Structure formats: C-alpha cells, structure tokens
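FIELD: query
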Amino acid sequence: MTMVEGMSPQIASSLVVTGKGGSEVLEVLDREVEDPEPGQLLVAVEAAGVNFMDVYQREGVYPTPTPFVLGAEGAGTVVAVTDTGSVSAADSFAVGDRVAWAAGSTGSASSLAIVASASAVRVPDGVSLRTAAAVMLQGMTAHYLINSTYNLRAGEWALIHAAAGGVGQLAIQLAKAKGATVIGTASTAEKVAKARAAGADHVINYRDVDDVAGEVRRLTDGRGVAVVYDGVGQSTFDASLASLQPRGMLVLFGGSSGQVPPFDLQRLNRAGSLYITRPTLGHYISTREELLERAGSILDSIAHGRLRVEIGGEYPLAEAKRAYEDLEGRKTSGKLLLLPT
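FIELD: result
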C-alpha cells in the first residue's frame, strides 16, 4: 500500500450545492482537496452517477448542511492513499486501483474526491469505469429489492414502476433471472420498448390507461401481484396498493414524483392484510461483507454479460443543471452520468 505524507492540497472542479432548492442552487466551483486521512482514498473521478438521492439532498428532504459537494456515487482511479498499517480488505487499496463506490461517501461530482476506503470496491477487468459508476447505486438497489426486501421467487408476479429507468431495467433482468413474471409501467412508447427489451413480460403505458391497477388485475386474472417495486411514490402509490394480492408487499424505495403523504393504516387491512416497507440502500450494505457481496454480484454479472446496463446520458460537469432537470423531468431512460474531467 502506498504511503502519502504532506501532499500539497490539490484543486478540484466540483459541483457544489450552495443552498436548499432546485437546480438553480448548483454551481461548479474550484475548491481545495486535502490529503486523504487514514481510511480514505483520493480518487481521480472518471464519472459520477446522477441520482434522485442527490435531488432529495439538494431539496432538503434528506437534510444536509450547505454548502456541500453533490454526489454519492462514482468511479475512478486511486491517486493517493494513506497507510494505516491495517491489513483489512477495506484498507488494502493502492495507487492505480480502479474503484467504484455508492452511498457511503459524498462529494463524488468532482474531478477529485475523497472516498472512504470501507465504501469502495475494485472494478473488475471487463467493466469500464463509466459502467461501474452507472451501476453501483442502482445495481445494488435492484439487487437488494429483488433478493432481500422481498425475495422474489420463481412463478411469482411483480409490478415494477418506471421500468425503463436505471433501477427498473436492472430489476427486470434480476427478476426474470429468478423466474418471476414481470409487469412494468412506463410513460412513452419508446420507454415501453426499452422495458420489453430488458425482459418485462407485460408493459403498461400509464398515459394510455385510465386504471393501471385494473390493467394489472386483468393481466393476473384478477389476482394481483405478489410485490410492487415503486420508486415513483406519490403519483403511483394508490395504484400500487390496489395492484397487490392479499398479503402482498409494496416496496416503496423512492419518490421521484413526490413523497407519499400520511395515510390510514387501516387501508392495508381492508385491501387484504397488505405489507408496506420503505427501504434504503444504506441499510442493505451496512457491513463490508454485504457491500462486497452485492457489488460483486452486480459487477461480475456485467463482466460476464449476464446483466446489461443502459447509460442514457453523459453530461460534462458544466451541464450538471441540465442533467438533473432531465432526470426530474423524466426525459431520460437508463442511467445518467456526470463527467468531471
């Protein structure tokens, strides 16, 4: 492992959230990046992921003191480490290693980022850094949704909202690999086609259907689905509940349309003893072992061609406002990336 001492602070171009609000609070600023402390890596960032988590932080839904550098996900090359004398896996990185991370370090939307070594994983041969940046958060999210929050089984039916999005396309592929039948929802003919290409058995264009839950009931011969994976939130919540079979589970993992307001829990009783959960990735990679298992599974599947990732857009850091406006306006599919250099 490389020992770095007394490095001069370096200047990085970074996407800074200057205050709580919309995309107007985003500024690209030059800032000093100090030496990595023990347990940290200094990384030259190849690409940073664009996520709704960033939007929640920027808007204050996830309270974060401002100013701060945006971005919880990225990939790049280690340029400096500080030797701690530890032999643990989390501290065994060296200068030149290709690494990726998500949900454990902030400040990824920068040409240089300080990354906690415990949050970083090596990027295997056969996977580009941009692909790794595109899949860490959304790939591990799809992995825990399909395998842990509700462990989907062969023969079960699942409804996946925003099926052409980054999580949606990955979740479809993982669900199909387990032998499930998948219904997706999407908003345009192009996105319907993308969801079908990912493997969805049925795709509902919700702009062409007055009653999404009714269409789900029709496709399932009135039964409903065992699980709904819903990252949209406010606008899909009622349809999600109405699409479930008795004792089915709504997995509400995001709120791209807005947060779900308080509701009467007796609705779950009346609809068939339903379950609802609001998971987040951090609780599913809370140990180093679980992080390595989930990230390793996703990256290995990509390296061996078992999992396909769509990068829907790449934006230079100077166009970060447009990237987030495109994301929030649902103008894109797949994964969006910021390119700091």
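FIELD: remark
Residues 153-278 form a domain with the Rossmann fold fold (CATH 3.40.50.720).
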